[in-house]
Amino acid sequence: MADWLEEQLHQTMVMLRDQRDRIESAKADLASRTTSATSPDRMVTVTMDAQNSVVGLKFNTTKYRSMPPEQLARTLLDVLERARREMADTVVEVFGPLMDQRDDLRAAMTGGTDVDKAFSALWKEAPSDVFGRGRD
Q1: Rg (CA), the chain
Q2: Residue 116 — very low, low, confident or very high, per pLDDT cuts 50/70/90?
Q3: Is 13 left (phi over 0), alpha (psi -120 to 50) or beta?
Q4: 93 contacts: CB under 8 Å, gap ≥ 6
Q5: Closest CA relative to residue 36, chosen from 67, 70, 80
Q6: How remote is the C-alpha of 118 from its chain's centroid?
C-alpha cells in the first residue's frame, strides 16, 4: 500500500509541476505577443499587447485630417475594439490547451485524487485515537 501511495503522490507532483511549467510557458508566450487591427478604410492601424495596452497607433493615410471629429473618434473606437477582440482570441488560443487539464488540477488541489481516496479509506479504518481523529 505504501508503494502505491508513494507512486500516486509522485504522479500528482509531476502533474502539478508540468501544469506549472505549461502555465509559465503560456504566460511568456502571451507576453511576447501583440495584435493589430486596421480600420476597414485602411486609414488607421492599432497594435495592442496582451494587457490590452495600446502599443502602436499608425495613421496609414491623411484622411483623418479632413474627417469630422465624431467620425474619427468612432473609427478609432471601432478599431480599438477589434484589436481588443483579436487579443482576447489570442489569449484563448494560448491558454485554451491548459483548460483541458483544469479538472485534473482541481482534483489534485482539492482532495479528489486516488491518493485522497486512499487516505479517506485509511481514516475510516483508523482507531479513534490516531492523530486525534475518530472514525467518520
Answers
A1: 26
A2: low
A3: alpha
A4: none
A5: 80
A6: 31
Judge if pTM exceeds 0.70: no
At 43 the three-state DSSP class reads coil
Element (H, E) at 99: helix 69-99
The residue type at 104: D
Quick one: cell of 57? 497607433
How many whole angstroms separate alpha carbon 84 and alpha carbon 78? 10
* Alpha-carbon distances, residue 3 vs 7, 17, 96 (angstroms): 6, 21, 35
Strand 44-49 with 34-38, pairing? antiparallel
Instruction: Specify the range with the lowest mean pLDDT, choosing from 57-61, 81-85, 106-110, 112-116.
Output: 106-110
